[in-house]
Amino acid sequence: MKIYLSFPLAVALMLGLGSCGPAENPTEEARPEAERSAIEARLITELSPSDDRAGRQRNAIINRAIDRNYDVYAAPEGYFYEILEEGSFNPLDSGDIVTVHYTGNFLDGTEFDNSHRRGTPLRFRVGDLIPAWNLALQRVRPGARLRILTPSDLAYGAAGLAAPNGDTLVPAHEPLEFLIEDIQIWEE
Question: Which residue range or ranges hold the PPIase FKBP-type domain (predicted)?
């Protein structure tokens, strides 16, 4: 059975539904066109002329950032980051014990891990995880929200990541995107 709507009714429904509930990705911000253009122009200068794996991954990360309107910055170590909320108190340091909630995605947007879905934050010592996390977390303070786009050599590299049952969670040489939030520091 097909349902046909008049154009005014269809527009009203789309506008009404569009204003209900959360956005597709609540971490993306609507930016004025001038700001979007400035971010894109800045990121285009970061593109790599190299056609090796590292260059292709860097370019894929930059393209993801441009496509999704992320205002990321290149870290000297090779990952890209965007601090979405500053947090407060002292910056995190290597060795600090923290809990975080996070979502991990492939660059095509497919989610491969989500602590919210498990219902429990991840607890770890800064310095004990993948290099991109260890480095980027030292840029923020407790309470911060942080986006990381990382090449595979600062994530799971050639080994990838396997589940305890042996299933592949992250294939080898896969660049990744993480949204890290609800960062809390713990005293031992």
Answer: 95-186
> DSSP readout, 90-126?
SPP-TT-EEEEEEEEEETTS-EEEEHHHHTS-EEEET
Query: What is the C-alpha to C-alpha distance for residues 145 and 96, in angstroms, rounded to an integer?
Result: 17
Which two three-digit tokens encode residue 140?
A: 């923020």
pLDDT digits (tens, 9 = 90+) for 101-144: 999 999 999 999 999 999 999 999 999 999 999 999 999 999 99
Least Cα distance to 176 among 81, 39, 93 occurs for 81
Statement: the pTM of the whole predicted model exceeds 0.85: no
pLDDT confidence of residue 50? 87
More confident residue, 45 or 23: 45
Q: Dig out the tokens for 159 from the structure.
A: 């080994």
Q: What are phi and psi of 120, to 5 degrees?
A: -145, 135
CATH number of 32-186: 3.10.50.40
Give the C-alpha separation, 21 to 121, whole Å.
24
Length of the chain counted residue by residue: 188
**Boundaries of every domain in the chain:** 32-186
